[in-house]
Model the fold of this input.
Amino acid sequence: MPRITATDPHRRREEVVVTGLGAVTPYGVGVQSLVDGLYSAVPTARRISLFDASAHAAQIACEVPGFKPAALLPPKLVSQLDRFAQFGLVAAEEALRQAGLLAPPAGGDGPPPRWPLADSIDATRVATLITSSAGGVGSLTEQHGRLIAGGPRMVRPFLTIAMPADMASGQAAIRHGLRGPSFAVLSACASGSDAIGAGLDLIRSGRADVVLAGGAEAAVIPVCVAAFGNAGALSRRNDDPARASRPFDVARDGFVMGEGAGVIVLERASHAAARGARVLAELAGYGVSDDAHHSTQPHPDGEGATRAITLALADADAAPADVGHVNAHGTSTPANDRTEAKAIRAALGGHTDQVAVTSTKSAVGHMLGAAGAVEAIAVITALREQRVSPTLNLDQQDPECAVDVVAGKPRDVSIKLACSNSFGFGGHNAVLVFRAQEPA
Done:
């Protein structure tokens, strides 16, 4: 029997589609807040309000405004969980509701402790892959302070379920009765995209019909801001926070920390069709690689990132000329933006100049393990709206970042295929390819 490759015309593989989206971002709670914010081209970076950052080199971040978990989640979960998991559960609920997978809400006041799936859904075939890069580091540092100040008896036992990076996934599974595989994929700032890619693989392998996948992060805390700041990764434009995140700009000086969550519902196409679900896009391909070069710096030639893009396109049975849009990792650090631009050009070749590139991080900051999931939502929105949100603060594009960056205002486009790039410390590279559904 001849070997079947990713681009073999004889291959028969069922589509995996997206049927639900959920988000908590610096624009507020809900996907619509994110979409409206991105198209408004209004930045969210501000002076840090979650703690006194006056002694820090970097004093700015993109925080989720006015987040009130008690109005969105059961009181018990609010008291037990770290902020990152609270974000993740709120986004998960929105995604499941949009996908039409939840039973009608029970009566009573306040958010229900449990909100199960509709009776027609086999819960053993629904997986949960919500990840985080830092996990409950905020709870950990808070409880460590209590330990130092008052001894072991002062440490809350709930730290054991607030700290693990898989707890947004586990708690979403418990709350909604999702009894399929449940775990977290950790790959630093590529984690959110890798979680979605792992979800694609779970469905293709037959282990699940539906996957709730994404990432959640709440790392705007003193120790994380100090560490990234001391490493020289964060922008120090403390007197002009709104203009601090400037991917591909010649004057970029580092990223701005963000927080929030993005969760999407992936579904076997036949499963979605059988229940009459609305399809938002197809997740057509996933490419993953490692630079094997340096713990924090990307490969200077972008070799690993190039390979991830190429693998993702092959997995989607697509050619470089099919790509109309790339949501770049685009951190606003000098090395990342330069090497990513090289990788895009290497992977897409002569077609690159016809590809609309943007960086969502210019508007909402870098959400670390949640970034890839939130950016996937932005890509799906671009495919549906046929409109790409702009990269903010691009005053003078770095000539070493020779790609067509959408700047200043949204751009109307005609695209059928788009890539979402995510890269992380440790050399991790993850690329997702989404295909528009007809009509776009």
Summary: The two ends are 38 Å apart (CA to CA).
